[in-house]
Amino acid sequence: MDDRQFRNAMGKFATGVTVVATEVDSKVHGMTANAFMSVSLNPKLVVVSIAEKAQMLEKIYQSGKFSVNILAANQQELSMIFAGQVKNHQDVEFDQLGGVPVLPGAVVQITCEVTASHVEGDHTLFIGKVTNIQLEDSEPLIYYSGNYRLLAEG
C-alpha cells in the first residue's frame, strides 16, 4: 500500500476536531489535531499524537502540560487557523483553566500534565494526566474523508 491509500483509509474514520494548546515563556502555541483519545478512567489519562516535524512537539516537552479543546460546530475557522490553512487571521484569544490555555466556546476543554511520551514512527505520543475538564452543551465539529461535517439527527 502507498502513503495516499493509507491516508485515505484513515480519513474514513470520523473524528472530532481538537486544538492542542500549551504555553511556553508566556506565549500560547496551538495546533489542530484529530489524533486524540482517552486512555484510562483510573487514573484519568488521554493521549495526543504529535508529528516529529511539528513545532508543537518541543513546546509540549518544554511546558510539560497541554490542553485538548474539542471544537464546536461553529469553530471550523479555528481548526483551519491552527492547521496553518488560514494565513491572514487575527490573534486568537485564549482563556486559562488551571494555568493552561484553553479555547473559549469549545465543546470540551481538557487540561493535562504530561506523564509519559513515546516515540512511535514519525510521531510522539504524549500521555496526559487530566487535571481539569470544562464542558459546554453544544454540537461538535466533525472531520471525515478530508472534509468538515456536522452531526445529523438520527
UniProtKB/TrEMBL annotation:
<dbReference type="InterPro" id="IPR002563">
    <property type="entry name" value="Flavin_Rdtase-like_dom"/>
</dbReference>
<protein>
    <submittedName>
        <fullName>NADH-dependent flavin reductase</fullName>
        <ecNumber>1.5.1.36</ecNumber>
    </submittedName>
</protein>
<dbReference type="InterPro" id="IPR050268">
    <property type="entry name" value="NADH-dep_flavin_reductase"/>
</dbReference>
<feature type="domain" description="Flavin reductase like">
    <location>
        <begin position="10"/>
        <end position="150"/>
    </location>
</feature>
<dbReference type="GO" id="GO:0036382">
    <property type="term" value="F:flavin reductase (NADH) activity"/>
</dbReference>
<keyword id="KW-0560">Oxidoreductase</keyword>
<dbReference type="InterPro" id="IPR012349">
    <property type="entry name" value="Split_barrel_FMN-bd"/>
</dbReference>
<dbReference type="Pfam" id="PF01613">
    <property type="entry name" value="Flavin_Reduct"/>
</dbReference>
